[in-house]
């Protein structure tokens, strides 16, 4: 028969066992978390260490025809360079893809070159006026200069349209290689 | 001696130019310096830089070249600094047409006069050059850094603008030319001249212009283009707003506006120079802009009280100190002088 004291003892033992179980569970969970954190930290350090450098060099010789063939593959139908020959060879050797992933945006670059040429030209005009002002201190028509500035600004404004990337550029960026 | 420093970096210069943020500095660029663009267009440089970051796997995407002159040349005209920028481009990017390069330069005129170490801050030029060769999409190859060549170029550029150069240098005018020529020739010898081979194809543009407008499909296409154009216009306005002040035009505009303001405000300028004590101005500038008063001594020239700058030997009146040293434009100079000396000036104006 279970007396009051024996019931109390059993209860106490059960509670002790439960407490041990709980503390074990907490401890194992803590260890798991620690292990996870350690793993994460190790991965982090590995990632920063692993950054591979391109130290190896491969150079190959081709015939004129072979070279022209590859050079042609790197361009679109309009003759614009889509990818450099080096990048194409690397891409072809390391992947199984038979498409060229365009790395260049020739139209965007063309527009950029035109905008840059306009900016250089404007700088030359500005310098010409500026130098003139230095030489003829006080003896110049300021309103004329301001008029020129206004016109240059409107020119620059129109030229800045060139700097917006074309939406169609990205659509034409891939090409099948036969 | 002109100091030229060259660094190669991946990104972040636009932020630095705009916000002035760097390690250990709290002030914003607008508090620190007055910016004045002297070469190229910042938007063009930004786009070229973005092209490199998006399309190329290069270690660095641009050069950042800083150039500063000794304090005694702190009033050198913008035209001279622009010429020096062009000379740097010509030398360090030998063999390239300037149109091939996306380059941009601006001068920073210090508003706050001393740095954290207590030294005088100097006007300096930031020149940034994208590594993207705009004609070939290849990487721009700058002149290889050699101490001998850098020193020769520094000597040459100082001599060309009649600045004092290395006092103890053994270099001479002819020897620097020889050294520079030697390095440039070496560079050209190892740089293939392929710029024309890769010049962008213009047929892309010209083909797009031959459109038969009577064709229905073409008409629909043109309408779509018109919508696209409006979209571009909106986008362009945003870009324009963001970069409005950062092209070479702005420096000239600023100069001309200053000249106009000078003519229009001649009476007020005279009132300021006559009515405000130069010592009071130096004191106020020391408090607000950390101008170091120990560089100045007060002299009396023909009954006028002027401040003599011991570093340059130049004298300044109250207006000159603010305009030339604190780099404020004409209107701001008048405003600031009125603010620091309001009671005196008011009584002076009433008396007039």
Give the topology.
The complex is a heterodimer of chains A (178) and B (352).
Chain A lengths: L3 H47 L13 H10 L11 H10 L4 E3 L4 H30 L6 H18 L14 E3 L2
Antiparallel strand pairs in A: 1-2
Helix pairs in contact in A: 4-5
Chain B lengths: L2 E7 L3 H7 L9 H4 E8 L1 H14 L6 E7 L9 H15 L10 E8 L13 E7 L16 H14 L12 H17 L13 H5 L8 H28 L5 H16 L1 H10 L2 H12 L6 E6 L2 E6 L5 E2 L1 H8 L4 H11 L1 H10 L1
Antiparallel strand pairs in B: 1-3, 2-4, 3-5, 4-5, 6-7, 7-8
Terminal CA distance of chain A: 92 Å
Radius of gyration based on Cα positions of chain A: 36 Å
| Widest β-sheet, arrangement of strands of chain B | 1-3-5-4-2
List the total number of helices of chain B: 14
Largest sheet of chain B: 5 strands, antiparallel
- The stretches of 5 or more residues of chain A where confidence is low (pLDDT under 50) are 170-178
What's the CATH first level of the largest domain in chain B? Alpha Beta
- First-to-last CA distance of chain B: 47 Å
């Amino acid at each position: 028969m279970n007396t009051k004291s024996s019931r109390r003892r059993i209860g106490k033992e059960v509670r002790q066992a439960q407490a041990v179980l709980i503390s074990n569970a907490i401890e194992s969970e803590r260890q798991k978390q620690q292990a996870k954190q350690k793993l994460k930290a190790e991965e982090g350090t590995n990632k920063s260490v692993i950054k591979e450098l391109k130290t190896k060099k491969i150079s190959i010789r081709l015939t004129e025809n072979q070279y022209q063939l590859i050079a042609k593959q790197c361009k679109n139908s309009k003759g614009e360079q889509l990818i450099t020959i080096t990048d194409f060879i690397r891409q072809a050797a390391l992947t199984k893809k038979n498409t060229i992933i365009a790395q260049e945006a020739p139209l965007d670059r063309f527009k950029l070159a035109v905008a840059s040429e306009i900016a250089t030209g404007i700088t030359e005009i500005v310098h010409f006026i500026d130098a003139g002002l230095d030489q003829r201190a006080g003896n110049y028509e300021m309103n004329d200069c301001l008029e020129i500035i206004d016109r240059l600004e409107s020119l620059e404004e129109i030229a800045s349209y060139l700097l917006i990337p074309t939406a169609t550029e990205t659509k034409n960026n891939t090409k099948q290689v036969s | 001696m002109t100091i030229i420093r060259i660094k190669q970096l991946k990104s972040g210069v636009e932020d630095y130019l705009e916000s002035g943020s760097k390690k250990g500095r709290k002030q914003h660029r607008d508090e620190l310096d007055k910016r004045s663009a002297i070469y190229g267009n910042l938007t063009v440089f930004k786009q070229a830089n973005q092209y490199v970051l998006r399309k190329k796997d290069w270690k660095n995407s641009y050069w950042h070249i800083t150039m500063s002159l000794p304090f005694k040349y702190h009033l050198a005209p913008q035209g001279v600094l622009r010429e020096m920028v062009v000379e740097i481009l010509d030398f360090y990017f030998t063999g390239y047409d300037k149109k091939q390069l996306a380059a941009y330069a601006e001068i920073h005129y210090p508003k706050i006069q001393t740095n954290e170490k207590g030294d005088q801050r100097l006007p300096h030029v930031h020149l940034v050059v994208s590594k993207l060769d705009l004609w070939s999409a290849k990487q721009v190859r700058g002149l290889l850094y050699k101490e001998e060549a850098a020193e020769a170029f520094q000597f040459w550029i100082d001599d060309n603008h009649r600045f004092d150069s290395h006092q103890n240098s053994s270099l001479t005018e002819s020897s620097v030319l020889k050294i520079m020529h030697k390095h440039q020739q070496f560079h050209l010898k190892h740089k293939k001249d392929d710029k024309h081979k890769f010049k962008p194809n213009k047929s892309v543009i010209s083909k797009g212009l031959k459109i038969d407008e009577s064709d229905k499909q073409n008409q629909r296409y043109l309408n779509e283009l018109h919508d696209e154009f409006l979209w571009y216009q909106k986008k362009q306005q945003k870009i324009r707003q963001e970069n409005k002040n950062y092209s070479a035009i702005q420096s000239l505009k600023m100069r001309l506006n200053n000249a106009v303001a000078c003519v229009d405000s001649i009476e007020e300028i005279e009132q300021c120079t006559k009515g405000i004590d130069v010592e009071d101005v130096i004191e106020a500038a020391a408090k607000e802009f950390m101008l170091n008063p120990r560089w100045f001594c007060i002299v009396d020239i023909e009954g006028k009280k002027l401040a003599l700058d011991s570093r340059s030997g130049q004298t300044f009146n109250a207006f000159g100190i603010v305009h030339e040293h604190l780099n404020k434009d004409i209107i701001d100079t008048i405003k600031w002088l009125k603010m620091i000396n309001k009671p005196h000036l008011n009584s002076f104006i009433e008396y007039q």
